[in-house]
Amino acid sequence: MIKNSTPARRRLHIGTALQSLTLVGLGLGMASFATAASAQAVQGAATDTTTATTTPAPTGDIVVTGSRIQRPDLQSSSPVATISAGELKATNTVTAESYLSSSPQFVPAASSTTNNGNGGTATVDLRGLGSQRTLVLVNGRRMVPSDIGGAVDINAIPTVLIKRVDVLTGGASAVYGADAISGVVNFVLDDKLEGVRADASSQVTGHGDAAQYNAGLAAGVKFGNDDAGHIVIAGQYTKRDGVYQSARAYSAQNLDANLKPSGSSNATPTVIDINSGRYQVNDGNQAGGTDNFVPYYKPYNFNPANYLQVPLERYNATALASYKFSDAAELYARGSYTRSDVTAILAPTATAGFNFTISPNNPFLNAANSALIFGDPKNLNADGTANVGIRRRVTETGGRIQEFTNDTYFGIVGLRGDFADSFHYDVFAQYGLAKRHEALLNDLDYNRTAQAINATVGANGTPVCANPANGCVPVNLFTSQPISAAALSFITANGAQDNRYTQFVTGGSLSGDLNFLQSPLADKPAAVALGAEYRRETGSQSVDANYGSGNLIYYGQGTAVPNASFDVKEIYGELQMPLVTDRPFVRALNFEGGVRYSSYTNNTVAGRNKLDAVTYKLGGDWSPVEGVRFRAIFNRATRDPNIAELNSPITQAGTDVLATDPCANGSPQGNATLAAKCIAQGAPATLVNSGVIQDVTANQTNINAGGNPALRPETANTLTAGAVFSPRFLRGLNVTVDYYRMKVNNYIASDGSQDIVNQCFNNNISAYCSLIVRNNISGQLSGSPNANGQFPGVTEQLINVATLKTSGIDVSADYRFTLPGDGNSLTLNMAGTYVDSYTFNLGAQATPINCAGKFGNSCAAVSINPIPRWKHQASAVLDLNGIAIQGRWRYVGPVSADAGTPILASRIPSYSYIDTNISFDVNKQYTFRVGVSNLFNINPPIVGGSAGSSGANSGNTFPNVYDALGRTFFAGISLKL
Questions:
Q1: Rounded to whole angstroms, how far apart are CA atoms 735 and 831?
Q2: What do you get for the CA distance between the two ends of the chain, in Å?
């Protein structure tokens, strides 16, 4: 567990000092600018989104994103946006996903502000199609996934060595293989670093919290005869403090759909559900006598116990080496290790409305409470005991703590070289291992809790358990007093889960010019790349006895996945061919194509299955005159189901958002059709007809979720077409405009609980009604398992149910021009995305839902975060003889609630955030930088806690999309030797 050991007062002093330092630094920067102090500008252009897809290293190999062909004069027709290392440093980016999540082409995925549903990782999501559909590369090679879910943990990538980040949008399976449906994110590391580079930074909010510290050191040196060898070694340490939702006024109190204070009926003191209604133990402040049951009066506010920012501690070590024997043979290798510890904290566990057996002689029931329960025959069992739904928030535990420990190992070795004038070869083998241990602390053991609640009077007149096995200690939940330490120790339990994932890839490629294949109208021949790869991935997930039993009330039942695997054998080819060069109205006309054949073998819990896939791309570009280029490319991409999707069994899996239960609050009375549905799902007819079924707790229902070994691969068709303008009359200006359209068939998804309920009760689709199971005693969507072993709730099994389509326009522009004076320049940059449509159809009977410009419960089935129609980043960098001053404008367009989200705050207006920073050289070795993000301290929108998935909606807002922490100050220093 990561602990914030710095006392609050000390953290406030540190925060105040850093704020002062930042303001002083900004002032010094302005003063230095005014006096034109001589120093070298260190800030590069913010984001290069031009057509350049290659950046030659000082020596060594050319790293290309989007093509296996390594000829600098040829450009891929796929748009590639480039984020420079200077921009990452200028914005104090310590974990790369934090910058990418705010970029226009991305929808935020798991990040530092993901608490409920945090898997201990950080991920990226291009176009909102899901992180498992975004292929992550490092130096053009696959990175090992973090677990059986198939997504890569971005925390495992060392930012200290990043030279640039290339973002290719559109399918890229023909070039890189499966998973590249929405595109590719390629982290290019500096493998030719010379000298020593060190960097340290710190940041803190205006509230004096959310501190973040980072330190990195890298060194590179040549060695051997004629400096033929090169080695780079780097290390990095990161620490991020946690922030509770209680630390911000907007998130301290849970709000309902009408923005009124709300909370959970799993409360303190105890709440009970019986035939006559819902009651709560009197805390002494209500009429009716202390510790007597009175009508339910006080929900539990669970927000303060949750994190708004989760803590992180990370260590990374990376080494890169190469030795060039000759132009024909260069040996290269890279190895890395990352350890990260992430902690999430959720509200304290509770008895969750589960049904418990109470004896009529329970010594903890006073006469009034006993009469209320046992005086109503409808509450009684045949033996005279009573079944009571009990809702006691066990605040004595301090919260449910989830501790994630991640270890990621990666190694690659290869041989590359040039021969026969223009040909290049590359053969390699790589291995990655990711391990995660997850400790699930402070839950309740249902069986022990039931045993301890069912108390009776012992021989000496003291309370004892009716069943004394296992050293049972009776627990008194029918009082406003705390649970005793001995009873708490008996009923609480922990769980554990371990993930292990391996990836082995080997392959070889050959690329070069086909001198025999040249258009008579072009000045250069075609270029080709051919290759073959073999990849094997294995994964397993184990759970301890507690978690595997399904006996933990809130954590549910852990998913044990035995060692499963798949392997794929692939061959591919790619061709780029100039068709016309330097002709009237055709400065350049080029064609490109590629094809990949993949043969999969999946070893699942249901047996072995094989499948083949063919992916391809066709594209081209046309430049009529210098400075104008039109481009278009079509890609066919695929994604094979990952190990978790194929092999995870259906188990009780926590909760999901549900605004209200249609069978609750007397709704079925007088409505025979509705009543029949509720009864068919397992609700007792007497409760349905009497209208006493209680509504869902805190807008959440239990869910049962899991995989499906019958899943088929997803296929996607993606089209991108656009233009690039670099006019000769305005040197330094580059403008790109690209239209994109993507359609994913056989989309693997589980519909959200809210939409399942809507499709059943509003649209009368029987297949959805069959996914709802009710508590056979209380009729609710929560509680202990029914007699047949089924957990009440909504089943969200993965199936090839959906078709997802999205389309829009990407726009980027950058303009750099010189100013009067030596070394003075101004660089302007803008990148924006307009989402025209984002629709999905969950089966032939379901109505398509368009989530472009929307947020909420229906859209949470595919994209848990809001998708604004327009989103952009714009920046200006002023370089004035040694001072780099940057301003950045982040814009998130307005969104409105979808049809499945009836809330008061049904529209979120547009949000603009202004960031600024200054960097300047103290001397030739040291560079100092300070900055402020969210300069005007804009608070996030408040929508209440019932809109959207609980993994996205946290603290009454969407903290992954909108700045949840407020104004943040940072300062850093870099050393170059």
A1: 10
A2: 37
